[in-house]
Specification:
Length: about 400
């Protein structure tokens, strides 16, 4: 019998770090019948004062070639009753172990000062990460803060590894000014990024649920300057927006006061734009004199955009649509998913939906035999339209399966 992919997750809510580590190691190892090649650990910020003890405790009980992880605003994992839980405001530890035959697993840690110039050759990025671009690696990325910006890092990785999928989340600490933790093979880091590249018999598929619904119609940017929209369909943007808001229902008009966003169409040729075709960005401000609108990304003339609203209902509908679309696109000869990771914004969860475990339960309803682990992030990493971005208010799922002919 061929060696099969295995993926196990365990979640502990023990308030003692020693007890939590013991519980997740014992349970995740008991679910595997072969040696783990990769470990991913996520710890809630309720354990902030004990971050330095995580790796020593894990390394005492666990031997795995590559082990990465980080701190989060909460963690996601599977309880001993087999239920997926999102724990946002209490001590919790989530450990995923994976047995990945036919996959080369390469971990890394990089800091801002090491990042190559974006104008330089792709080889300098390949040298930095230490992973060849062929066979195409799949990346799981856990950055802290970057002085040069995480978007520069993602742009560089897209440049060097254009066919690679990159998912992940930005580590966060336990409140204002508290320090993050990044873990890699026994070490604790306070800055930079840890990650893992998976090359060989593995496919990493993504669902990037940005939680918005479009309003009105798409417009074309006819004049702009960097991140400032000066004209939409050759009209003053603020007038276009005011007319649009005036046409909305009273409920949506109220929502637009605090939950209005811009969706940038990522495919300039696609006519029938669907959820997943837009990169959602915040509106930073307006200039009432010029009627211009500033957004949280660069735009170019000719690009299409559509205004969006975000609320719990839009967020739920968006994720459900993307899960249904994911299953519809599967073919019978593809191996089933064997594991998944969830990177959710701290602005989602119970604060958005008014009840716990919403996104993870919806995921499990559609992919019901797929073990899931993850954490609540300060920013979520995932692809839209073939490029990788840092998102907000998003849930990104990385779904692993073997290759069809693997």
């Amino acid at each position: 019998m061929a060696d099969t992919m295995q993926w196990a997750n365990a979640l502990s809510t023990r308030p003692s770090l020693e007890a939590a580590v013991t519980e997740v190691v014992e349970r995740s190892q008991s679910l595997l019948t072969a040696k783990a090649d990769l470990g991913l650990v996520f710890i809630s910020s309720a354990f902030t004062s004990e971050y330095s003890r995580v790796m020593p405790l894990l390394c005492e009980q666990l031997s795995v070639p590559v082990l990465i992880g980080c701190s989060g605003g909460g963690v996601i994992g599977t309880t001993n009753r087999g239920q997926t839980q999102e724990l946002e405001a209490e001590p919790a530890l989530s450990l995923t172990l994976a047995h990945l035959p036919g996959v080369n697993v390469q971990g890394f840690h990089v800091i801002s000062e090491e990042l190559p110039d974006l104008d330089g050759p792709p080889d300098s990025w390949i040298d930095l990460i230490g992973v060849p671009p062929s066979p195409t690696p799949q990346f799981i990325l856990l950055p802290g803060s970057f002085s040069s910006g995480i978007n520069d890092l993602l742009q560089g990785l897209d440049f060097a590894y254009p066919g690679s999928v990159k998912v992940g989340g930005q580590a966060i600490g336990g409140g204002m000014g508290s320090r993050i933790a990044l873990f890699y093979n026994g070490n604790l880091y306070r800055e930079g990024m840890v990650g893992v590249a998976l090359s060989g018999n593995i496919v990493l598929e993504t669902i990037v649920a940005q939680g918005c619904r479009p309003i009105g119609k798409p417009y074309q940017v006819t004049s702009c300057d960097r991140n400032i929209i000066l004209e939409l369909d050759e009209q003053i943007p603020l007038i276009v927006l005011r007319d649009l808001i005036a046409s909305l229902s009273p409920e949506d008009r109220a929502l637009a006061q605090h939950s209005l966003f811009v969706g940038l169409a990522m495919d300039e040729f696609k006519q029938d734009l669907q959820p997943g075709d837009f990169l959602i960005r915040s509106i930073l401000g307006v200039d009432p004199n010029a009627g211009a609108i500033a957004i949280a990304d660069y735009i170019r003339s000719g690009q299409r955009l559509q205004f969006h609203l975000r609320d719990a209902r839009a967020s739920a509908d968006d994720l459900e649509f993307l899960l249904m679309q994911y299953l519809d696109q599967r073919t019978e000869d593809e191996p089933s998913a064997f594991g998944a990771l969830m990177f959710a914004c701290v602005g989602r969860g119970e604060g958005l939906y008014g009840k716990p475990n919403f996104d993870s339960e919806l995921f499990s309803r559609y992919l019901n035999d797929t073990p899931l682990g993850g954490f609540f992030c300060g920013g979520e990493i995932g692809p839209v339209g073939g490029s990788t971005f840092l998102h907000n208010y998003t849930s990104v799922f990385g779904i692993c399966r073997a290759m069809a002919n693997g």
